[in-house]
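ingest -> validate -> predict -> emit
validate: passed (alphabet ok, no gaps, 243 aa)
predict: started
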Amino acid sequence: MRSAVLVTLFILGAATCASAGDEDGSQPKAPPSSKLTLAWYDFSSGTTGVDVNLRHSFKSMTGWLGSYHEDDGFDQARVGYEYDYHSTWVTLVPSVQAATHNFFGGTVYAEVGPRFFAIGGWGRTNLHPYWNLGFDPNDYAQFGAGHRDHMGNAISVYAIHDIRLGTGQTNTHFTFRRYLPDEWRLTVDAVNERGRGDEGVEIRSWSASVDVDWRQWFVRVAEDPHVNYTPDRQIRVAGGVRF
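emit:
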């Protein structure tokens, strides 16, 4: 919990100190259409994993391809598609995913409101193994709220709750995003994790991630003391390029 609190205080301080940046004309720019992400995962049990993910956005849809490999022999390739609908008041993003090991799933994400907005979401899978770039329950309901200003800076709070397996797993995200001068962007996500793991052990912990974007480049560092509600502590380092 201590590390997450420190990270949260850091981003709040950064947001306050950078408030003058609103006057320098820094504006979020439309991102490039493609994004390549390379990730490395280190587990406290001694396992390591690597992930490669390529996304491409069209006018109103996005597709992606990914591959995950662990040195204990687990490999998985995945593919996904989402439709992106955006209006002044409503954002609606349904998606479908498929992967080796016979995985199939679908999600829907929604926002309602221009500046202050409500958040809702839902996900359902066939319960087969699935590794992707997210670490929330795969069969879930999502709810929350947020605020964004005219510069694109945003703050949001939302919960992702298991609705299928009776684990009580709930990840509550406290997310801050700040655009800074010279095309820098800082994002912090502090996550309160509560629920039962596969062996029935009650987990109560915090994880945190920090993203730094500069022009087309980005890097993310995260620490999760009970990744996917297991005894494993995981360090994640990811980086890549938009093009």
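The chain is about 5% helix and 60% strand.
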